[in-house]
Amino acid sequence: MNQLSAIAPAPAGMGLPVLRERGQREVFCGLTGIVWLHRRIQDAFFLVVGSRTCAHLLQSAAGVMIFAEPRFATAIIGERDLAGLADANEELDRVVSRLIDRRPDIRMLFLVGSCPSEVIKLDLSRAAIRLNARFAPALRVLSYSGSGIETSFTEGEDACLAALVPELPASDEPTLLVVGTLAEVVEDQFTRLFTALGLEHVGFLPARRAAEMPPVGPNTRFLLAQPFLANTAVALAQRGARRIAAPFPLGVEGTTRWFQAAAAAFGISAAHCARTLEAPAARATAALARSRVTLAGTKIMFFPDSQLEIPLARFLTRELGMSLGEVGTPFLHREHLAEELAMLPAGTQLSEGQDVERQLDRCRSTAPDMVVCGMGLANPLEAEGFTTKWSIELVFSPIHGFEQAGDLAELFARPLRRRAALRV
After folding, report:
1. Co-location of 305 and 414 in the same domain
2. Which of 6, 110, 121, 226 is the most buried (most CB within 10 A)?
């Protein structure tokens, strides 16, 4: 039975009402994160221990790569495994051995749990320890859960990075750590800007290769590049690292404040920071102009899906002139989003969690010009006449930083232009 929705009292300093939803959900599972993680860590392999449904999901989400062998696969749990007629651990060891023989270039192997492996109580953490004893140091084996039973799809990345943190080398050197999967072009741009600011000891988690994972210690300060990394932040804090509070680097304003927060944490003057960021910020502002013509004055509603909803809502309303309908998010991490929440317009309706039928009713009632939602809701809403944007596309695309601000705005402007063209 679905629980009734209720308005939660707003925490001090937040000033916005939050509608807590606990009902039916429409989300991808955390296995989806493998699609962008395997592209990022170039010598890692992700082995899902799951069903044929898990394999079909990854193939659908990633597409079929005909000219390159992707670095993920599914160890299929069959009827004999489910019935207890086969030793699942022996079967897993056999699959891993075959994988390593075939792909000797792999330096890090993630055993990824799924709903089926968790149902049969297959302990992948113990399996990782057993396989490490066999294959280390040439291969490091880690495990995490990508199960979609109780999570949103971006939490797969959070679980993966949290599993990496205990394995990071220790260091007492003062360093900045950027946390969250970024496209390589974005990392290169950020590295150049950090260097121009005077910050040379900057690491990125995850790194591009297993042997290049950044060190962490009590003098590490870290910036979150993604808002869905709550468990990773806790794991880093347990290693002594401290988070730098900042909005997220989406759009001109978010990116500027993100770099300003890093500069201030390391004692770099505000004047030098302003000079360094002036040119890229100006280019980004100019790049937004075309999209702003299309988006200004239109209303957008976010269904809860990726946890990117609040930073995106801030960007769209403050820099592109859109108005906000309901802004839903699967989980509202008030500490990590404090700076973002402070920049939302007064009276913005936030919702945490999902009750999809109630949210659909509210969507029909408010009639937004655009709806950001999961793929499972997009086609039905399009059939009702709504213009939609898949939230998963915003995770797959390079959208962070100054140089990508115009591209991010275009992801929202194009569906409205397409709808206008179809009406002619």
Report:
1. yes
2. 110
Residue appearing with tokens 């390589």 = 184
388 vs 72, 381, 405, 410, 411, CA distance in Å? 30, 7, 20, 14, 11
Question: For residue 1, is it within any domain?
Answer: no
Q: Which residues contact 373 (CB under 8 A, 6 or more apart)?
A: 26, 302, 303, 305, 381, 388, 389, 390, 391
Do 69 and 18 fall into the same domain? Answer: no
Specify whether 252 is located in the same domain as 312.
Answer: no
Tokens found for residue 325: 């309908």
Whole-number pLDDT of residue 241? 98
Q: What are phi and psi of 71, to 5 degrees?
A: -100, 50
Task: Give the Cα separation of 74 and 380 in Å (integer).
Answer: 31
Domains identified in the chain, total number: 3
Annotate 70-84 with DSSP letters as a single string.
Answer: -SEEEEE--HHHHTT
Record the pTM: 0.92
The crossing angle, in degrees rounded to 10, of helices 155-164 and 230-238 is 10
Task: Tell me the CATH number at 246.
Answer: 3.40.50.1980
